[in-house]
Structures
1.
Amino acid sequence: MTAPARPDAAHLELFRRHGTSTVSDALDLLGAGDTGLPGLRRISGGGTVAGPGFTLRYVSVEAGTPGPAGEFADDVPAGAVVVVANEGRTHCTVWGDILTAAALRGGVAGTVVDGVCRDVAAIAASGYPLWSLGTYMKSGKHRVRLAAVQEPVTVRGVRIAPGDIVVGDDAGCLTVPAALAGRTAEQVVRVAGAEDAIRADLAAGLPLAEARARHGYNRLGLVPR
């Protein structure tokens, strides 16, 4: 399989600086559809993460069928965000402290799990950025198995291809399709500029409605149909 192209470092830095809210508004302006990943919450780490997705897909195994842990950790490039498509399963985990240690050693930017994680205290103590639906202690070994690596997956109803940019902060996670990264970055600058101008007007004493009208804020909120 051909490795996906690395995203522009300037785009990643822009997304980190402005966070998911501004990136989400920029995607709305492009009519990109809903690329947010609802239900995922930050479990550990701080700040905003942005990096190309490294995708994994897990499937269930029948009772008594071997389902070894996937040995993928050493293949994740530095700066990537691991995207674990576990179909929202909450009865077993697919991420814990050992995978976290491997990710930290490899310079991985963070992990997003459509499911649950365990070893939360140890992961939180490490400062590693992690988002999931919640926590649970049961291992995924012999309950699920790794079925695909670096193939398109579906997470919270959103298709994510390898190399699509994943952005996460305290508000949650979203994905920027790789093909839209440049145009999204342009709109991030536009949205952030309008919001900065509105804040300056508010600090100068202008009413909110007037400040928003001056900078076309409500037009920025229109989502193409």
Note: The longest helix spans residues 181-203.
2.
Amino acid sequence: MKDILFPPACPICSNPRPVIDNRKMNICPWCLKYITYIKEPACLKCGKALEDDNREYCKDCTDKQHLFNQAVSVYEYSEGIKQSIYNFKYHNKREYAEVYADEISGRYGDVINMWQPDVIMPVPIHVSKLKSRGYNQAGLIAESLSKKLNIEYNEHSLIRTRATSPMKDLNDIQRTKNLQKAFKIADNVIIYNKVLIVDDIYTTGTTIDACAECLKRAGVKEVYAVTLCVGRGF
């Protein structure tokens, strides 16, 4: 009844998702041309698509030692998914979270189960942004993903202590400085050995690294990450 009154929308075109062979599609087949899924070869550390079959790591991960253990992403950062995430974050398209989580679990459910995380945590947003936006987009994806994979969801242990500048206009050094002391642990997370962090976009890994540093300092042994989209690695 809910689907009839409020048809679930395709996250690319926002039209009702089609039903093909009695199965509701996550994305309209004709919208697939606007997105690109990450395919092999991909960086073994951050999950960026690679153009060179002989490489195992992208340039970023070759030059920089990340604090997280491993990360994967579903899509390459293209115009279609860029606009989709923008609508999700700023135009209250909260229903996209269910599709995003289904896409993640469909492509990386086996990988996540191999990692065996004890808990799924979203990258937190500052309380000021939460009040203005009304929701944490990463939290919606993470919560839906936790239900699909039957993994505990925790949005309270890792918190953002201060509002930070938008990362898109900053270089790598500025990104690191921007996130210094931006996160803290609100309660005892040493009960978790492995944590899976969820976010919408992976660029340089600075945000995931900052979360991983905070969690590992508190006693977590391994930190993994899954994001919706990531830039291409060279």
Note: The two ends are 48 Å apart (CA to CA).
